[in-house]
Amino acid sequence: MHWVEVDGYPMPVLLAGHPGLELCNTWAGWDAPPEPHREWLRDYQRLAVWARHAGLLDAVVTDRLRAAARDRPDEAGEVLAATRELRAALYAVLLDPGADAAFRVVARYAERAAATARLRADAAGVARWTLPADAGLALPLLACARAAADLLGTPDRARVRACPGDDCGWLFLDTRGRRRWCSMAVCGNRAKARAYLTRHR
Fold first, then answer.
1. Is the peptide bond preceding residue 34 cis, with omega within 30 degrees of 0?
2. pLDDT at 39 (0 to 100)
């Protein structure tokens, strides 16, 4: 797996095609240093840095959240646990559109994000929904929930595929309807991916 360092933390390179998928892929199998199948969201600090890396938060907000999390570790831990719950539910829904219980979990978090969002206009008068910085430590969770809802509400939902590698499960957008395996640069089972590509060239 290709990875980059962000604020001193190794982060997966963003290759899935959507922030909601990138969230799911912090959980899927990885061939990454220092060990495979790494849990990228191991603590709140990494969650905040990952959300910035995925384009869901800016650097100033991320720094503020990381400082606040050091002062309120219990609250930070609750947000991390909730983000993992959202991630697991989104992953389940993307693999099985009929996973009603998992969809209700995603919907609960997405509705919370929608209730928190504010409509703002930029200098050109173009309006967009934003999550306010005063949402506190929950901000990364709410940003992930918005990304999840956006993904489930677009045609891209039908193009999501999971790599069938035994040690992978990485999700990606199959925009041309031709891919079965994830990129060999990502897949935790490169030998099978190579064999498949050799047979289907």
1. yes
2. 77
